[in-house]
TrEMBL record:
The keyword Nucleotidyltransferase applies. Residues 24-88 form the DNA polymerase III delta N-terminal domain. It catalyses: DNA(n) + a 2'-deoxyribonucleoside 5'-triphosphate = DNA(n+1) + diphosphate. This is DNA polymerase III subunit delta. InterPro entries: DNA_pol3_clamp-load_cplx_C, DNA_pol3_delta_N, DNA_polIII_delta, P-loop_NTPase. Belongs to the DNA polymerase HolA subunit family. It comes from the Bacteria. GO terms for cellular component: DNA polymerase III complex.
Length: 342
């Protein structure tokens, strides 16, 4: 079985094994999936934007013609050099293409597959884990240790350190999506450029304290289908100066936790055990809303929500002036759909 864990992941990403050119990246942290995919593909080809070097495929379309992946993987580059194939997995199964490639040796071609959360028995995950020419890498929400390393990495590049109380506050505001977290830290680094140390006041000025402004009603309301409450609470948060990207980051963390709990429920665990697996420190005041969301949203619907939030976070970074509108639209979409399908 070729499912990498812990330090094996860092070692492989730093120096990919050419004997295992098929790489599956999956998990609830879509930002981390994308970040790792970008890094791998940048190391594989000279120019990821060159259509002769990079082939992009949609997983659902590939499922209709799995042989296309084999053809592309075995194609000799017209002008020489290495090639790469980037696949965005959808809901349809193209695992047979991975099985076929297992008996071949794609030359100078890296194949990177991006997927959401996959259960152990998912055909794509099973195919990659049993193939001698593939690896499967899980991309889960960053732990406190991961976030601490990310903070140090970004601030070190800026020649800045961070005070202990500022680090603790910042860590509590990050997570859920790697790219969103990295973006927040870079924004903080830009704000403190030239300073020797980032202080708690800097964090408070740039990265809104979600707990102090009580973002829970927005997040819980959205996933429980309470659209009117979400609209009101979101407007108040923006009026209070809350950065909308932070609200979406909180929603991403919540979606990942709900998805973990829902998978446990679908595997036959009791609702109490499932809830504990996803929310080990859930405050009693939130329990009713979280239980409502857990019962009403399937794991597949939660994956779609995770994807929706990732796209919203990306769009907010590209169109900062429309961040408030983009965030509100994403939250209302979750709330309306959660209520309509209960």
């Amino acid at each position: 079985m070729t499912a990498l864990r812990g330090k094996e992941i860092d070692t492989f990403l730093a120096r990919p094994d050419p004997a295992r050119p098929v790489i599956l990246l999956y998990g609830p942290d879509t930002g981390l999936v994308r970040e790792r995919a970008d890094a791998l593909l940048s190391s594989a080809v000279a120019d990821p934007n060159d259509p002769f070097s990079m082939v992009k495929m949609d997983g659902d379309e590939l499922a209709g013609d799995p042989a296309r992946l084999v053809d592309e993987a075995m194609t000799v580059p017209l002008f020489g050099g290495r090639r790469a194939i980037r696949i965005r997995a959808g809901s349809r199964n193209f695992a047979s293409a991975i099985d076929t490639l297992a008996g071949m040796a794609p030359k100078d071609c890296m194949i990177v597959i991006e997927a959401g959360e996959l259960r152990p028995d998912a055909p794509l995950r099973k195919a990659c884990e049993r193939s001698r020419s593939a690896v499967a890498i899980a991309c889960y929400t960053d732990t406190e240790r991961d976030l601490a390393r990310l903070i140090d990495e970004e601030l070190r590049a800026n020649g800045t350190t961070i005070a202990a109380d500022a680090r603790a506050a910042l860590t509590g505001l990050l997570g859920g999506d790697r790219q969103a977290s990295r973006n927040e830290i870079r924004k903080l680094a830009l704000y403190t450029h030239g300073a020797k140390e980032v202080t708690l006041a800097d964090v408070a000025a740039v990265v809104t304290d979600a707990s102090a402004l009580a973002l829970d009603p927005i997040i819980d309301g959205a996933f429980a289908g309470r659209a009117a409450a979400v609209e009101t609470a979101y407007a108040k948060a923006l009026a209070a100066g809350t950065y909308p990207g932070q609200i979406i980051a909180s929603a991403q963390r919540h979606a990942a936790q709900l998805h973990k709990a829902r998978l446990a429920l679908e595997e036959g665990r009791s609702e109490m055990d499932a809830l504990e697996s996803g929310f080990p420190r859930l405050h009693f005041s939130r329990r009713t809303h979280v239980e409502t969301a857990l019962r009403g949203l399937s794991s597949e619907r939660l994956l779609r929500i995770i994807s929706l939030l990732a796209e919203a976070a990306f769009d907010m970074r590209r169109q900062a002036d429309l961040a408030g509108t983009i965030g509100g639209r994403a939250l209302m979409s979750i709330a309306v759909n959660a209520r309509a399908r209960r």
